[in-house]
Design a protein that fits this description.
Keywords: Isomerase, Pyridoxal phosphate. Catalyzes the interconversion of L-alanine and D-alanine. May also act on other amino acids. It is an enzyme of class 5 (isomerase). This protein is of the alpha/beta class and 395 residues long. It folds into 2 domains: 32-253, TIM Barrel, CATH 3.20.20; 267-393, Lyase, Ornithine Decarboxylase, Chain A, domain 1. It is built from 11 helices and 21 strands. The strands form 3 sheets. Strands 1, 2, 12, 15, 16, 17, 18, 19, 20 and 21 form a 10-stranded mixed beta sheet that branches. Bound molecules: pyridoxal-5'-phosphate. The site of pyridoxal-5'-phosphate has 12 residues, from helix 9 and strand 11. Pyridoxal-5'-phosphate (PLP) binds at residues 55, 57, 103, 187, 227-229, 243-246, 253.
Length: 395
């Protein structure tokens, strides 16, 4: 827990850069030392020639893109991956210089102008998109050459040209003015599964496509394939670069990959008790009375709710940590507040800090715990916290 006296920097808080985080009702704590540790752990898995792209899309999975980007670049990452053009611009505006790959499919004139202006590197997914890029770049500057990243669909059925058309696609991009192929890549659909069958099939398709391209005398300058799960699963998928998101934030893509590296969760979510009261047996709590006190209890109200990103479907199902003890949440989660049964915490005070996600003494509540309860994945939990919660650096 951070003390009030500690000088702590705000990681990301659009409403106000200098807001005193400790006066907040709720916040997200970001452990940049853990982030750095995770990047170094992943680097140890990679050979010297393999670069590490830190995927910082969606505001770095909710962790605050600019400070995350700066930290990972100091810790061994050499590329950044974003999903959208504005996400890339945000990093450039913050003075971040290393290459930034836009993983999504940009195609409008405005997006292409912005990519060229901010020196972002686009993904090319189809011959049509390649033609559009070449045409628009011609109108910007007849001498312009943009590094582009050719995406092959080897089985994800999302972005990219089908691997069987890889040769025609690459030949077209090679011929078009203003485009220079900086890499060829693909994306895995099932790398987090203990059954490698589909991953191996995708790997084989990628290998086949690359072999055909090389047979034409084209030497791809950089190949990349693996997300976090692929990186942790099989070194043969590392190629010249890996694109890791989840793992740099300290979470494992699957239980069976836990033994591979030692990762530390970067994010914690905390809030304060705002009121404490006694509730008699039989009293209903919160909207819809989905909780009725079975006996006299002591109830605490905490200033965080679903508008901050606490999933309402966790109502009556989640626990929080106070002084290292697990405490049940009771009744419907509301927009801005939740209630707890704090009968087992002696003399609880208003203002006390509650850990919703993270470590308190020797207990931990993880994004996986929430994801398992909700039938979703930790990626979605991390991305769900709203910007009403300031991101503050923990140390
Ligand atoms: C999001 C994304 C990644 C990172 O995935 P993780 O599972 O979080 O490591 C890698 N590549 C592409 C194309 C992505 O969209």
């Amino acid at each position: 827990m951070l003390s009030h006296e500690q000088q702590t920097s705000i990681v990301s808080y659009p409403q106000c850069d200098t807001y005193a985080w400790y006066s907040q009702r709720a916040w997200v704590e970001i452990d940049l030392a853990a982030l750095s540790h995770n990047v170094k752990q992943l680097r140890q898995l990679l050979s010297q020639k393999t670069q590490l792209m830190a995927v910082v899309k969606a505001d770095a999975y909710g962790h605050g893109a600019v400070s995350v980007a700066k930290t990972v670049l100091e810790s061994g990452a050499s590329w950044l991956g974003v999903a959208t053009v504005p996400e890339g611009i945000q990093l450039r505006e913050a003075g971040i210089k290393p290459p930034i790959l836009v993983l999504g499919a940009a195609q409008t004139t405005e997006q292409i102008h912005a990519i060229a202006h901010w020196e972002l590197e686009p993904t090319l997914c189809s011959p049509k998109q390649a033609l559009v890029f070449s045409d628009i770049l011609e109108t910007i500057d007849v001498d312009a050459t943009l590094p582009v990243h050719v995406k092959l669909d080897t089985g994800m059925s999302r972005l990219g040209t089908n691997w069987q058309q890889a040769v025609e696609f690459i030949q077209l991009v090679e011929r078009l003015p203003h485009l220079r192929i900086a890499s060829i890549y693909s994306h895995l659909a099932t790398a987090d599964s203990p059954d490698p069958t589909i991953m191996n099939l995708q790997h084989q398709r990628f290998e086949d496509a690359i072999a055909q391209i090389k047979a034409l005398g084209i030497e791809p300058p950089c190949l990349h394939f693996a997300n976090s799960a692929g990186t942790l699963t099989n070194k043969a998928l590392h190629y010249d670069m890996v694109r890791t998101g989840l793992a740099i934030y300290g979470h494992y893509p699957a239980e069976h990959l836990r033994h591979t590296v030692n990762l530390k969760p970067v994010m914690q979510v905390k809030a304060r008790v705002t009121q404490v009261k006694n509730i008699a047996a039989g009293t209903g709590v919160s909207y819809g009375y989905r909780y009725i006190a079975p006996h006299d209890i002591r109830l605490a109200v905490v200033g965080i709710g679903y508008a901050d990103g606490i999933p309402r479907n966790l109502s009556n199902k989640m626990q929080v940590l106070i002084r290292g003890q697990l405490v049940p949440q009771i009744g419907s989660i509301t927009m801005d507040q939740i209630m707890l049964d704090v009968s087992n915490i002696s003399d609880i005070q208003e203002g006390e800090v509650v850990t919703l996600l993270g470590q308190d003494r020797d207990r931990q509540i993880t994004a996986d715990d929430w994801a398992n309860e909700l039938g979703t994945i930790s990626w979605e939990i991390l991305c769900s916290f709203k910007h009403r919660l300031p991101r503050v650096a923990a140390d």
